[in-house]
Amino acid sequence: MQKTLIALSVFVALSSTSLAAEISKNADVVVVGGGAAGLPAAVQAAEKGAKVILVEKNPYLGGGANAAEGLFGVESKWQRGKSIGLTREECFNYLMEHSHYKADPALTKKFVWGSAENLDWLASHGMKFEPIQMTPYDAPTWHVVGEYKGQEHGAAYIKLLADVAKEKGVEILVGTPAKELLKDGNKVVGVKAKDSKGNDVIIHSKATIISTGGFGNSPEKVQKWLGWNPDVFKASVPLNKTGDGIEMAWRAGSEKTPMTLMLHTGVEGKGISFPGAIYCMSWQPFNLWVNNEGERFTNEANAFSFPNAGNAIASQHGSTAWAIWDNNSIDYVQKEGIDNGIGVIVPVLDKLPKLKEEIKTALAAGNSTFVSANSLEELAHKMGVPAANLEKTVAQYNKLAEDGRDTFLGKSHQYLRPISGTTYYAIKLFPFSYTSLGGIKIDKGFRVLDKNNHPIDGLYAAGVDAGGLYGDTYPVWTSGHAFGWSSYSGRQDRKSTRLNSSHSEIYR
For residue 409, how many other CB atoms are within 10 A of its CB? Predict the structure, then answer.
């Protein structure tokens, strides 16, 4: 019996091994990652006559771009149509100053000056745009993507480019994660991937483009690469972005760049969801924000600038804080609508019709992250903050509201409203992230650079995997920057890449 079991085990093992095969493919260009950067890269290469294979580890295309809304652009024809006079020089100078001149000026200038042309290129394929000023504190650079085949915004962008890619003959392999880059000496000559059946897919190529969307969904890498607590610095959406492309480039010899996360205000708990009514309430500038000592620490209108809000929260002890509102705030929202939307998904002036229902459900679930009380002392106890500190903070804040002037932190009078109702609510704020930023060093031709600052032949990077565009935080004033950069960098000049003896170029 034992011999029979052993024989069966050997047979099964051999059979499993024999089922896995090695599939070999050849391409002019292989694109690793089918999102905001990878799809335009594939489309443009195919339009230039290249044979293109795109591999995507998820079983669907788009990644985080499906939840994006608009792309950065300046001096576009859509802005001109609305008499928006913002200039490229203004945006360039802002971005350099915002990064404290840590951003690569050549890359930044190239992107800013090319952003309108990139929108034109997308429009030539049928994409529609509307320029919008996202908040009162941002520039009108946000070009929100219009409807396409029943999809809107980022999902429409992905659907349209996927359709164009297929029409142009791009071979798209979803559920096929890239595992390593193939090298011949110092040259990258392709990618080894693995398909959903366990087969090794070997793709030999003349140019390889990494566009895998960063590492924000990897708690291990958030801890290891940034030194941040992944139990607090969580990704907003489970997109399986785990830094694969960055690691592959590093193993191939790429120089590393500084990295960070695109932070924003996040909340969690049973009955609380993105972008539900309670979530929207946590983004309102009329709230009072306190840290875990029960003390105010920022101008709450920072909620308009989600990276700044995330940074402010992250800087507190424990890297968390609390937003407080009262029943008067609920009455205001349901009469006048919200002051700060969630992009265009939940627009300004939305009255959150399900707010009271969501509050009732979330409180009944017994969340430690969302609490309510009829007194500040009780509220402080449920929050776990010193009651005396909270009572003092609220009294001081209410006096500022009564005077109509925030002499402490400078909040505009229009959002300075007292916390003085009969019922108080508090929700715990976390520095969640939309994506990571940076990792692979590139030059202005988007070629990956090695530790001697020399290009690695055959290897390029685009989107948020590529470093050089940011300092220590995201520049939300130039709304749509990351989405626009991903799209632009995915398809821009790589004139040094020659495909055959006639020196035909795959990029313009």
Answer: 15
Quick one: tokens of 231?
């139990």
d(CA 195, CA 93): 45
DSSP per position, 159-191:
HHHHHHHHHTT-EEEES--EEEEEEETTEEEEE
Burial zone of 374 (CB within 10 Å; 0-12 exposed, 13-18 middle, 19+ buried):
exposed
CB atoms under 10 Å from CB of 223, counted, come to 14
- Mean pLDDT along residues 423-445: 97
Residue 20 has what pLDDT? Answer: 75
- pLDDT for 115 equals 98
What's the pLDDT tens digit per position in 38-69? 999 999 999 999 999 999 999 999 999 999 99
- Least confident interval from 19-28, 185-194, 199-208: 19-28
DSSP state letter for 255? P
Cα–Cα distances (Å) from 507 to 29, 46, 166, 499, in that order, read 11, 9, 18, 11
Single-letter code of the amino acid located at 224: K
Can you give the pTM of this predicted structure? 0.93
Answer whether the bond into residue 275 is a cis peptide, omega within 30°. Answer: yes
Count CB atoms within 10 A of the CB of residue 406.
Answer: 19
| Alpha carbons 321 and 291: distance in angstroms, whole number | 4
Instruction: From 312, 307, 319, select the one nearest 263 (Cα to Cα).
Output: 307
187-196, Cβ contacts within 8 angstroms, sequence gap of 24 or more: 187/456, 187/457, 187/458, 188/252, 188/456, 188/457, 188/458, 188/459, 189/458, 190/27, 190/30, 191/30, 191/32, 191/55, 193/55, 195/23, 196/59
Mean pLDDT of the chain: 93
Whole-angstrom Cα distance, residue 43 to residue 390?
56
Structure tokens at 402: 């009564």
**pLDDT digits over 87-144, tens only?**
999 999 999 999 999 999 999 999 999 999 999 999 999 999 999 999 999 999 999 9
Closest CA to 216 of 207, 225, 204: 225
Provide mean pLDDT across the span 303-312.
97
DSSP secondary structure, 174-240, as one string: ES--EEEEEEETTEEEEEEEE-TTS-EEEEEEEEEEE----STT-HHHIIIII---TTTS-BSS---
Q: Is it the case that residue 2 has pLDDT exceeding 90?
A: no
What whole-number distance in Å separates Cα of residue 507 and Cα of residue 469? 22
pLDDT value for 492: 82
- The pLDDT confidence band at residue 19, using thresholds 50, 70 and 90, is low
CA atoms within 13 A on the CB side of 476: 22
User: What number is the average pLDDT over the span 264-270?
Assistant: 97
Contact predicate 70/152, CB 8 Å:
no
Is it the case that residue 371 has pLDDT exceeding 50? Answer: yes
DSSP H helical segments within 284-326, as ranges? 306-314
Using the 8-state DSSP alphabet, how is residue 287 labeled?
S
CA dist list (Å): 145 to 148, 157, 251, 262, 462? 9, 7, 36, 21, 21
Backbone phi and psi for residue 59, each to the nearest 5 degrees, phi listed first: -80, 10
